[in-house]
Every structure is written in structure tokens, then in C-alpha cells.
Amino acid sequence: MKPTKEIEALATEIADAARASFRALFENGERYYYCTLYTTGEGHAPSISAWSWEALEAEVARQGEESGTPGSTMAELIKWSYADSPYSCYGDENFDRVKQRFFERPSIAELGDDESDWKFDARLMAMELAMKMLDNEGVFALNQPRESVCVLVEVMPPDEINTDIALRLNRAESPAMQAWLAEAAE
Predict the structure, then answer these.
(1) Count of structural domains, the chain
(2) What pLDDT, on a 0 to 100 scale, did the predictor assign at position 179?
(3) Would you state the pLDDT for residue 4?
């Protein structure tokens, strides 16, 4: 599938929202290793999530203390989890217009199989294009070298397409991508 003008327009809107959210988040000066734009298997409007090394350390200590789980085990459990990050849905108010655009479209669940597959793929393509735009602008290298960040577009629950997209958005040899592939890829 090639991007259409409609997909490119949606990608621009998603990029505008994600840019505002990531830039505001990165003002905290932390060093990030994971930045994602995620959606559901139903193709709902996306949200961002991210992990920094500083946030991981704090969250491992907090959740480990609450659960009695050793820190190394807790780190393995949450390191790549969009939902466990304190930055999940960060700046979600920036996505209000994107949510409206998704709401105006037919629900993926209401469409026939072929059309729903195409519409879902189009939404993922728009999300991937949006993250490429931000990457090309240098957004993911604001607090750390780009090679230290795994930039993703993810479907939740996890799907094999996540790995395909990750390989297109990151250099396979980068340290962050190698860690993600070893520890979290589907």
C-alpha cells in the first residue's frame, strides 16, 4: 500500500499532535530509550508513551517496593511496557483533533473484513509516517543520541506488525533496536 493524500494528511495531523506531546515531555531533560505511538487492534486514535532511564529507575523502585518484586525482575517486566510508563498518554490533550478525525471515520469493527483490513493498515501507515516526520526533524535526538532510542508504532495487544514497523523506523544495528529485538519483539 502506498500513502494516499488522505493518509499523508492524517499523518501530518498525527505528527503535529505527537510533536507537541514529545517536545513537552522532553523538556524534563531525561534520557529516553523508548518512544512509541500506539493504538489498539480496533484502530483507535493513537497516544504516545515513552520511557527514560530515569523514569524506569524510579518506577522499578516504586513498583518493586509495592509488590516485593526484586528490581531486576521488575525492570524486565516494565522496561518496554507502554502502559506501565508514567508517560503513557502524555500530552493526550494534543490529540483531541486527531481523536475527532478518527471518530468521524467508520469504526473498523463496523466494516467488512477486506475494508477493515485496508482502513486499519492505512491508519498504521499514517502513524508510521508521522513518526518518520518527527524522526527526520530530530525530535528523538533532543535529550540523547538518536541511536539510543527505539522509536516505535505499536498495536496493542502486541502484534507481529510491530516488529516490521520497528525495523523500518530504526536502524537494526542500533543499540536501542538490538535491545528491543532481544527483549520485547513479537
Answers:
(1) 1
(2) 96
(3) 87
